[in-house]
Design goal:
It is a single chain. Helices cover about 65% and strands about 0% of the residues. With about 190 residues, it is an all-alpha fold. The protein folds into two domains: about 35 residues; about 150 residues, Lysozyme, CATH 1.10.530.10. Helix 2 crosses helix 3 and helix 6 packs across helix 9.
Length: about 190
Amino acid sequence: MFTEVFRFWTVTILVLVAIDLIVGRWWWSSSKERRYDPLILQASLRYQIDPALVKAVIWKESGFEPKARGRAGEIGLMQIRSLAAHEWAAAEKVPGFRDENLADPSINTLAGSWYLSKLLKRYRQTDNPIPYALADYNAGRSHVLRWKTGVATTNNTQFRKQVSFPSTQLYIQQVLERHQHYRAKTFAKN
């Protein structure tokens, strides 16, 4: 009898601990994703860009890790490179800007949103500028110009088929999917 009761309580406690771990991990992950929503909203309003898209890029680029560093020198939440950051600082007349400033999530989100907005405007003559802008953000303009030929000049479906880097194709797909997720869940009221 004692053994059965002991076994029952042991299993019950293990199940409760497992549930607690699962719920705790979900909550931590969820709160990590929501932590920068006010900064994302501020930047997206300033640069007239969909906050769900900004958040999706942050999700893909850094996983919401403000101290993230890329192999090619990308910095922070949106993995901004020095050249793009200095373009933003010059356009916004930010005095004394240095690359180290990109470690600040607010500055990084502003600079990254400005840059993403610039890319979206670059491809506004297309049927959907988002895939083009994401390809440019990920692989660079020279590659986009190579892929953006024929019908793919304005047709994003054809453009995506011409992207020759599997990693960039995956990048575009994952950011687009996460963009829709955040539009439905996080920024649905906006």
